Amino acid sequence: MTSAWSEDAALLAAAQAALAGGQPRKALELLNHSKSESVAVRNAHGVCLLNLGDWQSALDHYRVLVLEKGGLALRNGVPSAVRANYALALLASGSPIGAENLLFEIADEADPAVARVRAMLRRWRTARPWWQRVLLRLGVQMAFEPVRLDDKPVALWMPAGRAETAPADRRPRAA
Questions:
Q1: Which residues of the chain have pLDDT under 70?
Q2: Which of 97, 118, 154, 158 could form a Cys-Cys staple with 81, CB 3.0–4.6 A?
Q3: pLDDT at 66
Q4: Is residue 46 in some structural domain?
């Protein structure tokens, strides 16, 4: 008898191999056949959507995974790498201020996924004309072109050591 985590680990390894081979659609099909509701598998689904360039679907997917019902507060216990992927979806869909606000809420400065998205946002910001940078500092919402991603977000895969098997919306809250 295999545990839920070992099944998830095998599924994630197969999806990662497909992504590394440049086959995000195949990875997504693998994940779609799973009944797992683990944060790791749900994150992998979002990574596939990012790899496919389906920004709006990725944004919708991560919104449910990262935000509380009602969409105003972050869920407790969501790994930093998953939050970083949500920030990446915000960036790619043209919401750099939303991504910046989310990154501000992530306390894990050492997480490589978080550092990578922060660096991407920093490069995007410095490439703006001076007047847009001023408006951004003031928090003025403007229509921005989507941030061009450095490369495919395969590198933002949630580390297996942090994967949790409990569904995100059923996890106990920290007191």
A1: 1-5, 150-175
A2: 158
A3: 94
A4: yes
pLDDT in tens, 28-43: 999 999 988 888 899 9
Bridge partners of 67, per DSSP, are: 74
pLDDT at 26: 96
Q: Is residue 109 part of a domain?
A: yes
Rounded CA gap, 136 and 41, in Å?
35
How many domains would you assign to the chain? 1
Each residue of 114-128: b (16+ CB within 10 Å) or e? Answer: bebbbebbeebeeee
Other CB atoms within 10 Å distance of the CB of residue 76: 12
Asked, for residue 119, whether it belongs to a domain, the answer is yes
The pLDDT value recorded for residue 30 is 94
* Owning domain of residue 150: 4-158
CA-angle at 82, arms to 80 and 84, nearest 5°: 70
Contacts of 154 (CB under 8 A, 6+ apart): 16, 19, 20, 47, 51
**What backbone torsions phi and psi does residue 23 show, to the nearest 5 degrees?**
-120, 70
Q: What is the DSSP letter of 76?
A: T
pTM of the model: 0.81
pLDDT, position 96: 85
